[in-house]
Amino acid sequence: EPEVTQTPSHQVTQMGQEVILRCVPISNHLYFYWYRQILGQKVEFLVSFYNNEISEKSEIFDDQFSVERPDGSNFTLKIRSTKLEDSAMYFCASSARGTAYNEQFFGPGTRLTVL
Amino acid sequence: QKEVEQNSGPLSVPEGAIASLNCTYSDRGSQSFFWYRQYSGKSPELIMSIYSNGDKEDGRFTAQLNKASQYVSLLIRDSQPSDSATYLCAVNGVTTDSWGKLQFGAGTQVVVTP
Asked: Averaged in consecutive runs of 10 residues, what is the pLDDT profile of chain A (115 residues)?
C-alpha cells in the first residue's frame, strides 16, 4: 500500500541552526501539507502546497519557514533559524484531491529537538 | 476562533464492548470530517471520513454526523486491546481557499481493558 515517507525520523539541532525536513508523498498525490504536534498538544496545520505554490499557511508558518518541491518526488520543509519552541513532531501529509473532501494521509513524522 | 472539541478521556472500555467517542465543532459551514487514530509516539492514521448527515460504517467502525447539531461521533464495536490509542477528530476548511487545512481536536484516549 502506498505511503508517505519522511526523513530523518529524529533530528537534533542547536538553536539558530537551519534544518530541512524531507518527505516523499504518495506517488499519485498532488496536494501536500505540513503539520506539527508539540508534545502533549493538538496537531496543528502549518502549510498546504499545490502546483509548486503555497495554497494556505497558518500563523505559525512565519518567515523562518519555507517549503519546496525540489524534484518530482520530494517535498521539503525548511526552518531557517530554529528556536527552542520549534521542538515538535513534524508530519507531512498528502492527498489526491484538492477539495474539502480530501483524505489526507500522514507520514511517520520527524521528531525535531532544538537544544 | 474555530474550535474542534473532544473529551480527553481516558475512556476505559472492556474488551468486546462498544467505545463511543464524541466531537463537536464550532464552524457551521464545515464540510468534511475525519477520524484519525494515533498510537503513542506515532503519526495520525486515517480510519474514517464522513461528509453527509447520517451514519457511515466501515468494519467495526461507524461514524455519525449531525451537521445541525455540529456533532460527529465514532463508534468502535467489539473493542480490542489493539484499539487502545488516541482518536483525533479533524474538520476540514469551509472555503475554497481553505480546502486543505485540517483542524484537529485534542483527541480522546481510549483504553481497552482485557
From this structure: 94 98 95 96 95 92 95 94 97 88 94 98
**Min Cα separation B93/chain A (Å):** 6
More confident call, B95 vs A23: A23
Q: Residue A55: its chain B contacts at CB < 8 A?
A: 97, 99-100
pLDDT at residue A3, rounded to an integer: 95
Which residue of B90, B101, B103 is in closest CB contact with A56? B101
* Cα end-to-end span (Å), chain B: 40
Please name which of B58, B25, B96, B32 lies closest in space to residue A104, comparing C-alpha atoms.
Answer: B32
A:B CB pairs within 8 Å: 72
